[in-house]
Amino acid sequence: MSVGHTLWAQDATGLADLVRKGEVSPIELTEAAIARAEATRPDINATAEPLYEAARARAKTIDRSLPLAGVPFAIKDLGIAIKGVPTHGGSRIPAWLADVNSVLTDRYLAAGLVPIVTSTAPEHGLRLMTESKAFGITRNPWNTGHTSGGSSGGAAALVAAGVVPVAHASDGGGSIRVPSACTGLVGLKTSRGRIPLTPLVSESWYGMVVDHAVTRSVRDSALLLDLTHGPDPLSPYAALPPKGTFTAAAARDPGKLKLAVYRKSPLGLPVSLETLKALDTAVALAREGGHAVEEIDLPFIGRDFIADFCRTVASAVAGTMRAEALRVGRSVAGDIERATRVLGRLGEMVSAGETYAGLQRLHATSRRLIEETARYDAVLMPIIAHPPLACGAMDPKGADDLIENLLDKLHLTPLLRLKPLFGQLMDKSLWFTHWPAIQNVSGQPSIALPVHVTDAGLPLGIQAAGRPGDEETLLSLAAQMEKISGWLGRRAPLKVPS
Questions:
Q1: Each residue of 150-159: pLDDT tens digit?
Q2: Pairing mode of beta strands 72-76, 114-119
Q3: Whole-model pTM above 0.70?
Q4: Peptide bond into 199 cis (omega under 30)
Q5: What are φ and ψ of residue 379, in 5° steps?
Q6: Which residue in 292, 233, 244 sits closest to 103, CA to CA?
Q7: What single-letter DSSP state applies at residue 313?
Q8: Could you list the active site residues?
Q9: Cβ atoms of residues 329 and 93 within 8 Å
Q10: How far, in Å, CA of 313 to CA of 301, rounded?
Q11: What does each C-alpha distance from 40 to 32, 34, 49, 152, 171 come to in angstroms?
Q12: 3-class SS at 120?
């Protein structure tokens, strides 16, 4: 078998094992990954910055005893820094060059990973499709006419296309889980405080953003979490420590769990039959694994909750645009996309007092959610309400009344004149996905499970949300479902270069 086929067939854990045994070298894996990145680049367009020469130099000297020695990797072009590598954030705002690595970058390097590219993201991670004026459209390897999701859509496309077996990703409103659901991957949104964002920031979006990865296998997600979790001295808070290792959790039988299923849209918007079929598949897998499953409702998670979330994100976007203007020494209004500009304008119109009040409401609802679901080991719920959208389809649809409702609640009816613009960002995003922001607000972990492929051949995953700090149960459950379902053997229908 060629090294290219080995890269496609093995997960990161398997590749590292081959490196330790001397059956393949880090430079062979790196060259195979670079070749596949270039071969698939015209089709999926998932690379922001190639790092090929640095990757080759690293692969030639890497310590093969490291746990993930020589495994090709991608780092998202948003959120964490690689010293000396331009970070664009998916934007036409002039890139910045970090003079230090992020703590997480250093942990990836200490694990032995070899970054070969940075992956594309929509501008500042604000859309659930990875399309930007700066980099164009990133496409789904399962069907290049469809989206790979966002905002970690470049990461997901690279993993699903077999360029790398694992890739860094981040999640502030579903940005790990939505791309995973669109591309047939495992995507763990970690507990708040599990992985540090330092030293660039202490927190992002008021603590709603977390970093981890998209992977093909559950064991890779667990191993990578073992190698990267834990606060550093600059971290403002930390998640509850695990009872053991995440790798051990993924390797053991979960026992008999008590699971819940939440089917409703918090916004009262349509949910496709395919999404409900995917959720039913997950329930069937859980029951086959011996778990008790019961239906629940969460009536307190509704439009008020989502309105507060949207307003909070808007205020964060406004603050980010102010910081970017200071960095480049001028207004960035002409550089950013219309949707970003409009969302930032909304953020400027919300008072500081109302932003704080909204955060307090979000926290209060989160406390109620955590308390009322504490008796369950996990809650199964959708990620996306519809199969992966066609590329370019993020336009207003199906939620005009929602936008009016949001604006009324925000006491920002003057913004109704911006509705056609604001709608292009929020209408379709909210129509496409209704659930992931819940865990970003509450800080709970949640894992995307690739349980379903539609009749049209598109993946459609669902999620299992856990108790705060309890990624171990989620990984154990996910690994059992992976084994029962056989989803690990699925691959996007791409030709593999020899």
A1: 999 999 999 9
A2: parallel
A3: yes
A4: yes
A5: -120, 120
A6: 233
A7: H
A8: 76, 151, 175
A9: no
A10: 17
A11: 12, 10, 15, 17, 25
A12: coil
